[in-house]
Amino acid sequence: MRTVPGGLLTLLNSGPAEMLIADLFTFTLVSGTVLRYTNYDTDLVIGGNTYQNPPPIIERSQVKWSKGVEVDTLDLQISDDGSSLVGQTPILQAFVQRLFDGATIELDRVFASPAAIPSWQGPMVLFTGRVADISSLGRSTMKLTVKSQLELLNLQLPRNLVQPACRWTLFDAGCTLNRATFAVSGAVAAGSNKNVLQTNLTQAGPATPPATAASLTHTTGHFIPAQTYYVVWTIINALGETSFSPESKVTLTINQRLVITSPSNPGGGALGWNAYVGLAPNNEMLQNATPIAFGTNYTAPDYQAGPTEGVAPPTVNQTGYFDLGYIVFTSGPNNGVTRAVDTYLAGGVVTLRVGLPNAPTNGDTFTIYPGCNKSIVTCDKKFSNKANFGGFSFVPSPETAI
Known about the structure:
Elements: H1 6-14, E1 20-28, E2 34-38, E3 44-46, E4 49-51, E5 57-60, E6 73-79, E7 85-86, E8 89-90, H2 91-96, E9 104-112, E10 121-137, E11 141-148, E12 184-187, E13 196-198, E14 216-219, E15 227-237, E16 240-241, E17 248-252, E18 257-260, E19 270-278, E20 285-286, E21 298-299, E22 326-329, E23 338-345, E24 349-352, E25 365-369, H3 376-382
Antiparallel strand pairs: 1-2, 1-9, 3-4, 5-6, 6-11, 7-8, 9-10, 10-11, 12-25, 13-24, 14-18, 15-16, 15-17, 15-19, 18-21, 19-20, 22-23, 22-25, 23-24
């Protein structure tokens, strides 16, 4: 059912001999940017919002209204001479850069009597949908299809599949992590190009990986057999866990209980430390369920021969920390451009999945976010978010028949 605004209904009932009609197009990008255009001869101010007259020139197909549940479509042809910008990017180029992926487009119509300009009546909503497909794209013209919001009902059920990988997207409501907490600011350095960025990033988080081995002591008067222990430790901060410290080793005699002396708080946002103990070199396993506070020693259990068993996770070190993440430029010729991060190497080398539209310049600033491969190890050790893991790690792999 379409609602006709009261002022428009009054205008229609007055039966003017001539009537002016204008289409209003509102593009709402996923980033929150709102673009407003009209096919009228001049800019229009409707409801406090300014709708820009051409360029770009927007032509549309007819709107079909039907009874029942049906995914309606609207075909648009957009022509532009390069003067219409999204941020600093021409609008057709912005479509190529996928800035309009998932964007919502609303088509409204306003009416006026020539004798009452600029008293426009409306707007009346004719169509609302999402960008679905780009059928053709040239130097100055493109065609795209917009599908109504009913398309969102085309979901496969059950919605949540039982699978090993996490079903959540990093930083969404199911993941629960706060995106801003993991944001890291940086700047482009000399030697960068559209695909590979040299940056001033030197580490994944504010805490530097431990440079010294753990200090080991023991207590006596227990019921523990003689054993040799290997120990490493890490620092926990808001961005995850650092790489391992150098390995330390101690051989204890019968009834001696291992104690790891707490390291000093290095500052820089460190929240605590983790203790890893093993019975063989490079085979240490995490001993504590939550980070240990600085100033608190770790003391091994009194009743067992070896350390707590668990899965030894891969180190979350500098290299690879931002893999599968994304970068958003905040200044320079690429201001506002977002790109997926393909790989990240310690020392600040960022390789992009898709090249930038413009060559970056030395000093361009950006914000970069880490990525997630949706495994439980990454969820636990990189993000300390195991309680909200959305996968089923122990689902057996499907059998393959030849």
